[in-house]
Every structure is written in structure tokens, then in C-alpha cells.
Amino acid sequence: MGEGTPAVLVLGIGNLLWADEGFGVRAVETLHQHYCFSDNVKVMDGGTQGVYLVQHIRDADILIVFDAVDYGLPPGTLKLVHGDEVPKFLGAKKISLHQTGFQEVLAMAEMLGDYPKHLLLIGVQPVELEDYGGSLRPAVKAQIAPAIDAALTFLEKHDVFAEMRCDQLGEDDTIASLEMTLGRYEGGRPDAVNAFRHGDSRVLAGDGWSGPDDFDAEVAEMVARTGEPR
Contact 152/35 with Cβ under 8 angstroms? Predict the structure, then answer.
């Protein structure tokens, strides 16, 4: 990397297992399949790694984040947020724990004196989250291409240019988990009869499971039992 060449991180965050929560990861997957960059640009699936991303953030002069964000807008709406406004939008209406973690990552980077000079959040308002094992809804999936265009436009303003691949990479040439590529993930999902949609059926039995009638009383009883002589 030459002197004065900015270090760029294009990061997708989110959880593929909860429908539209996977938007950020699917966006960087698609970007990687269609475009290549010079060595100063890293395109990365950040998943739900939270604070483990801090060193990558510290190394970046320019940071672009793709994510599903609750802006309070109509479902499927794409919205760009710049600079100091980004942490506010990630924290105002958290849709998952990873957003709290990413707020902390940005705060840690700033505290350590390595905050990106240029920051862009490219977020889409989710349509559906409560669908365990589900994929992106059509309105959210349709925003992947516009989101990528927005990222490329932002980079061009900072003299960072992508090159379209002559041949799109195959699905197996992924920056994410091979087992979670879009085709495998969508094609391998069992139907609703065989796959519980609101949690992991190995933990939450789908046929008639319910919580305790009085949770506080049950906890109090358990605590009392721990003090009984053995």
C-alpha cells in the first residue's frame, strides 16, 4: 500500500439465521461476487462478532457498514447515514444484540484514537425478523443492488474504485461460511412442519412448550432449595 493510500473496510454485519437480519452479510457476499478491489480494500463478513471486530475498525481510514437497521421507516426502505450519526442509529432501536456490540466497537476505536476518518452506514428497514432459519424478504433482497451502488459511489468520492469482475464468482467462492451461502441456506430449509420458525427446536419444543405460570415463584423456590441441607 502506497503512502497516503487509505485503508478501506467494507463490512457486513448481522445474523443470517433471523431473516432480514442477514441483509448486511448478504450485501457484502454479493459485492464480493461481482466486484474486486485493490489491496487497500477489505470486504468482510463481520457477522455477529461484535468487539472482535475492533482491530479491523481501528485499521480503517474509510469504513462502510451494511446492516439491517430499525429506522422506524416503511419496511424495505434503504437509508444512508454518515459520520457521527452512525452510532446513534445503531443504538436508537436495536433489533439484535450485535448492534449493541458494534456500538461498543466504534466507541472502543474512538477511545483508542483510531476512529475511521470517513464512515457510512448503509441500512435497510427489515420486513421480518421473527423467522428462525428464514432468508431475506423480497423487499429487503431488492435493496442489495442499490446498497452496493451507494457504497461504490461513496468510495469513488474518496478515489477508491472497484472493478467489475468479467466472470461473476460462483457461490462457493464466498467470503462467508460455505454452508450458509444463499443457495444452500434457502434451498436446504425444511418446511414449516419440520422446522420450528421461532427458535431452535432442540431447545424450544415446538409442540406445546410453554413457560412457567409464575416465573418469580419458581425461581424463589429453586433458590430456597439450594439452601436446604443435603
Answer: yes
